[in-house]
Amino acid sequence: MARTKPSIPQIASIREADETLAEIARLAREINAIESTMNDAIDNAKAAARDAAAPLQLRIKTLGDALGAYATYHKADLFAKAKTISTNHGAYGFRKTTSLKPLAKLTWQSVMEKIQAAGRDGLLRVKTDINKEALRELPEPDMEALGVRLVSTDEFWYEIAQDQVEDVAGV
Description:
Structural class: mainly alpha
Shape: flat
């Protein structure tokens, strides 16, 4: 199948360029209105789903709590040989879990300070990222030694003056 080149409207004057920007601004406002309507519909659907699901989630929590109370009360009998009981509709049981918590009267911040004071930096996570703004300030030989280079391009851009377009359009 042969490729076809897309047809691009021809602009012949500054006046036509200004009219083109006015049309782009009008179309952008229409898109914003469509997206606003869509977001309202999505928000309404989420609220309706949240309202419809709330009693179901409350019932699940109540039933789960009841199942937990039953299992805890009968723990010695039910879980003497196994930690899990499988039924036709699922399984329940007890599992050993561990979590880290600071000692009494300590916070995670104080724990971090103790780790740093002990020189145990391997126990800390540090996020490392490239400072591109600082890299831009380096001389070119230094940039190349680090494996980067500045690439300049002449890119077309346009900006819609919304307030002015709205005044001209009488909106």
